[in-house]
Structure formats: C-alpha cells, structure tokens
C-alpha cells in the first residue's frame, strides 16, 4: 500500500483560492510543510482575471474590502508590493467612503501574490478523502493517492461534503446539518470587448436594482483594461433559470439588457459560469472542525463572511486549528 | 443506552478520553458514546483521584470540544 502513495505532506490544502492560499501561507510561516492542490489551470479561484487581446476582465470577485486589521495589513503589504491599489470609495454619488481595493493588473495578481513561496500542484482534482489510521488518504481524479497528516478543504462546502462522503467520512449529525444548509448563488458572467468606451461613469461599477443583471463593471474605467471591456454578472435567479440554456444566447440576452449602460457595439464576448459564486448563508463560525486527530477542517468564504476578506480570515482560522493540533499541548 | 462494554472498548474509550486533541464529537463518531456517557465510563473505571484529574484536564479545553474550538478560532464578527 505504501508504494502506491505518490506524495506525502504534513498538511494538504485543497483549493488555491483566497482561503486556501491564506491557510497555506500561515501554516508555512508556522514551520509546517504544506502542499496546495488546485483543480484549475489558474490559481486564485474566484480571484480571476482574463485577457482577450488588449482587453482585461476581472470576471469573478470584483473588489476587496478590509475590516479586520490583519487582513488590512495584508492589503497594505500587497499595495507595497505593487499588486493592490485603491479602486474607489463607493459606487454611487453618495459614496460611503469605505475603500474598495482591486488587484493590479487584475484580481488574479492578489492570488499570485498570496501564492509566493508556496508549493502548488495545479490541475489536480481530488476525488475522495478517507481516513487511514492517524493520517488522511486523498484519492485524485487521476487515481494518484496522496497522504497527509492534516487537511484543510477550501472547496465550496457542497463539493467538500461530496469528497468526504466519497471517502466514507461520517460527519456528526449537528455538523452535517449545519454544513448541508450552506448553499451558493450561481452567476453567469459575461465578458464583452466593446467597440468604444461605454456610457458608464467613473469609478465604473454599478449594481442595478432590477432586471437580470446584478452587477456591471467597466474594466477600462476600473483601470485594468487597455481596451473598453465590461464584465456583466447575472443575478442568481436569472443564472439558475438560464443555467442549462445555450450560453451564447444567454450572453446575448444579458448584453441587450446592458445596452443602456454600454451604448456602443460589441466586438466579441465570452461567458463564464460560476456554479458557486457567493454563499447564500454564512456560517457564524470561521471554519468547521470535522476532525482534530488527525485534523480535517473546512474553510472558505461560507464561514467568515461572503467576501475575499472572509475567505482569508477563514483560511487563517483553519490554519490556527491545525497548528493547535500539531503543537505540543498548551492549556487553552 | 449501552451499559456494559468489552475490555477493549473500555480501554479505547479511556484512551480517546485522555487524548487532549480528540474531541468528544470525534469520540461519539468512533464509539457512539456522547460526552455524558464517556464521563460515566471514566467515573466508573478510574480511581476517584484520577477521575478528578481527568475532569480538570478536559473541562473547557478547547481542543476537546469542537464547538469551543470553533468559537475560539472565530474572532470578533466583521459584519458591516
């Protein structure tokens, strides 16, 4: 059995989005050997930026805010490193004065900054997590098997639960009830390159109060795109209703709904479907402890708040739990 | 509620109960015994002085209770 294991790690972090990267960085700082796995071609999860010729789009998370001092300090660090800048202090004329940050050149730059010094295996999808004695066995979709002393699972909660179930890990009833209740909004995101500047006003973000569009952003006004380029996020209701429809037709419906803010022709467009875009419910605790010996934790923006900041705080909390579980016992 | 356990079951329960970082929730998953039942087994099986020492060690220990640990890890709320 031993020779079938492809990799060993003290701690395996599943998912290289904000939660996973924050957890991994904290664990590494504490001196643990950490390996991060991500199923995507790009790290960052919803901290996503796409380029189409001279157009650049943030098509996932749109901006970052900071309320927690530790997270604010991280953003300051990112700013010093030249990967974060202030976008604006609000999107309506009566701006609330609260800083909205963006990554530069795009949101993915923040994820790349957070990944510095970490070992990350990309395009590695986990199929099942199971317990073997005092450590975890992780079966990959490509049938490789990894072993780890601790796991922090940062996939969207419904996907995380599937991985545990596939490996025969039973959750205690109260925890199962709590985690099963966490659901996510869906979001169809259209990225359109425009033939000229849009009609939108600085700072370039707007949340319509009705219709199929939840959010529209002009990436040129935002300061990340050389060419005029807009990101359109459909509402959860519209995304759910259109999920199985032809994606190009759905994109055209959204583009025509956006016409009054665009006022100019479309050069080209793409659509991306976020199955888990934003948690509908937020768990009141910062992470979920599935097991402590050996540690298995769930983290992500479903825990500390449906924001980039929440994901980071959740990742840090899960890392702290692993550190508690691996360090000599203290009287807590 | 089961009232008698085999020797192996009892020694396993005692081991889990003494482990600082095996939560009562995990013990329940592994043995079917809730915290109260674990306490009963410990009261019955340990010398009174050992039992008191164990109670003192686990009471309020965050790594012994999932909910305490999760609360301990959760700083102040960051709601707007």
List the helices and strands and how they pair.
The complex is a heterodimer of chains A (about 325) and B (about 80).
Chain A: E1 5-14, H1 18-29, E2 34-37, E3 49-52, E4 55-58, H2 69-80, E5 84-88, E6 100-103, H3 107-114, E7 119-121, E8 126-132, E9 135-140, E10 145-153, H4 157-166, H5 173-180, E11 184-194, E12 205-206, E13 213-218, H6 219-222, E14 229-234, H7 236-242, H8 247-257, H9 259-262, E15 266-279, E16 288-292, E17 295-298, H10 301-304, H11 308-326
Chain B: H1 7-18, H2 24-31, H3 35-45, H4 48-58, H5 66-73
Helix pairs in contact in B: 1-3, 3-4
The arrangement of helices and strands of chain B along the chain is: HHHHH
Helix content of chain B: 55-70%
Number of helices of chain B: 5
CATH architecture of the largest domain in chain A: Alpha-Beta Complex
The strand count of chain A comes to 17
Radius of gyration of chain B: 15 Å
How would you characterize this protein structure?
- The complex is a heterodimer of chains A (332) and B (80).
- Chain A has 332 residues and is an alpha+beta fold.
- Chain A folds into two domains: 2-44 and 115-182 and 281-326, FAD/NAD(P)-binding domain, CATH 3.50.50.60; 49-113 and 184-279, Alpha-Beta Complex (Polyamine Oxidase, Chain A, domain 2), CATH 3.90.660.10.
- In chain A, 30% of the residues lie in helices and 31% in strands.
- Chain A contains eleven helices and 17 strands.
- Chain A has helices at residues 18-29, 69-80, 107-114, 157-166, 173-180, 219-222, 236-242, 247-257, 259-262, 301-304, 308-326, and strands spanning 5-14, 34-37, 49-52, 55-58, 84-88, 100-103, 119-121, 126-132, 135-140, 145-153, 184-194, 205-206, 213-218, 229-234, 266-279, 288-292, 295-298.
- In chain A, strands 1, 2, 7, 8, 9, 10, 16 and 17 form an eight-stranded mixed sheet that branches. A five-stranded antiparallel sheet of chain A has the order 12-13-14-11-15.
- In chain A, helix 1 (18-29) runs parallel beside helix 11 (308-326).
- The longest helix of chain A is centred in the last third of the chain and has 19 residues, at 308-326.
- Chain B is mainly α.
- Chain B has one domain (7-71).
- Chain B is 62% helix and 0% strand.
- Chain B has helices at residues 7-18, 24-31, 35-45, 48-58, 66-73.
- In chain B, helix 1 crosses helix 3 and helix 3 runs antiparallel to helix 4.
- Chain B is globular and about 45 Å long.
- Classes of the chains: A alpha+beta (332), B mainly alpha (80).
């Amino acid at each position: 059995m031993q020779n079938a294991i492809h990799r060993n790690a003290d701690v395996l972090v599943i998912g290289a989005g904000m939660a996973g990267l924050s957890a991994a960085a904290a664990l590494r700082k504490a001196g643990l050997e950490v390996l991060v796995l991500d199923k995507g071609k790009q790290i960052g999860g919803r901290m996503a930026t796409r380029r189409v010729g001279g157009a650049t789009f943030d098509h996932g998370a749109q901006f970052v805010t900071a309320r927690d001092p530790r997270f604010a300090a991280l953003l300051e660090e990112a700013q010093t490193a030249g990967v974060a800048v202030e976008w604006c202090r609000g999107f309506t004329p009566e701006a609330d004065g609260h800083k909205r940050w963006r990554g530069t050149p795009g949101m993915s730059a923040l994820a790349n900054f957070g990944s510095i010094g970490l070992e990350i295996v990309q395009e590695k999808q986990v199929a099942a997590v199971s317990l073997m004695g005092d450590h975890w066995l992780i079966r990959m979709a490509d049938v490789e098997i990894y072993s780890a002393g601790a796991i922090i699972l940062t996939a969207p909660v419904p996907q995380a639960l599937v991985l545990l179930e596939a490996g025969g890990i039973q959750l205690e009833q109260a925890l199962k009830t709590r985690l099963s209740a966490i659901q996510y909004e869906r979001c169809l995101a259209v990225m359109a390159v425009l033939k000229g500047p849009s009609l939108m006003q600085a700072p370039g973000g707007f949340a319509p109060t009705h219709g199929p569009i939840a959010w529209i952003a002009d990436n040129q006004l935002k300061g990340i795109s050389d060419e005029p380029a807009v990101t359109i996020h459909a509402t959860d209701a519209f995304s759910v209703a259109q999920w199985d429809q032809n994606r190009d037709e759905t994109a055209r419906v959204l583009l025509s709904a956006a016409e009054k803010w665009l006022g100019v022709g479309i050069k080209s467009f793409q659509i991306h479907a976020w199955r888990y875009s934003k948690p509908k419910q937020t768990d009141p605790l910062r992470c979920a402890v599935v097991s402590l010996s050996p540690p298995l934790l769930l983290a992500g923006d479903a825990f500390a708040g449906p924001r980039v900041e929440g994901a980071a705080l959740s990742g840090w909390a899960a890392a702290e739990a692993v550190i508690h579980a691996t360090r000599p016992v203290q009287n807590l | 509620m089961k009232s008698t356990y085999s020797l192996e079951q009892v020694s396993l329960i005692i081991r889990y109960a003494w482990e600082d970082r095996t939560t009562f929730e995990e013990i329940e998953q592994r043995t079917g015994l809730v915290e109260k039942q674990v306490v009963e087994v410990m009261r019955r099986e340990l010398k009174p002085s050992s039992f008191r020492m164990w109670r003192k060690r686990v009471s309020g220990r965050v790594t012994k209770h999932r909910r305490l640990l999760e609360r301990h890890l959760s700083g102040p709320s960051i709601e707007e």
